[in-house]
Give the backbone structure.
Amino acid sequence: MPASAFGEHLQPFSGITSFMRCPATRDPAGADVVIVGVPYDSATSYRSGARFGPRAIRSASAMIWGYHNLHRLRPLDVLRVVDYGDVEVVPPSVTDTFRNTEAEVLAILETGATVLALGGDHSISLPLLRAHAKRFGPLSVVHFDSHPDTWDSEYPGQPYSHGTIYRRAIEEGLIRPEAYIQIGLRGSTGGPDDWDWARQRGVRVITMDEAAALGVPALIAAIRETASGPVFVTFDIDVADPAYAPGTGTPEVGGFTSHQLLQLVRGLKGLNLVGFDLVEVNPQYDHGDITALLAANIAFEFVALRALR
Ligand code: MN
Ligand code: MN
């Protein structure tokens, strides 16, 4: 049996479902990319269930054969990718979950590996950004989402939810606002100011209507104009139209197609991409695993981008 038999030589319906059936190990030493699940969903404001996202994405990833036909490379041959499993989340405690996530991810980053985190609700971005900013300094962020996630607080005295973490990240100095772009905002909001808080701080905000008017090539150009230095990519699956990604907690109609999102992510080629998360996959509301399959393919695109770096 060849050494690589652990992965792609197994049939997709067989074996243990690590991400793309990469080796499962808690030891990130020597890895280029470490897949890290963060199965936490206690900071959701509507439908919980994203704690089952990492497992669903891993399962769907078994369908990915490994050769990237547009980039013309086999990322798992270029990189050593391992699946760490999941960080130690604490379901009733957002602060304990954040502490554990930051510590475990920082330890992985210190080996020199790139982390690709699978959520979980979007609150998990905050400890990821804290860990990445400790290693790389204040970050440029490319944020795909139908929501800005810059609310102040959804509940009195509770600063952390999946709708507040990007305000916290700016307040904590983890992000360079002028190098931060949000793409895909849409839907009704609680008031006229929801999209403006970030804009007033110099963040580039491209609503779904603006994105549709620009088209994919101009949108990629806008991202590349804004992103600079070490770039963290955060991908909330609800940026996709619910027709393509029904399995999520706070769906918003009128979003991107799966193909547009694949094109946008491929457009990040060549940026200094230092970290990735993919969040808000909620299998309980999925149909035919299409949301998990989209998420697995976006994650594969992230691995391919890292292989091109
Ligand atoms: Mn979000
Ligand atoms: Mn969202």
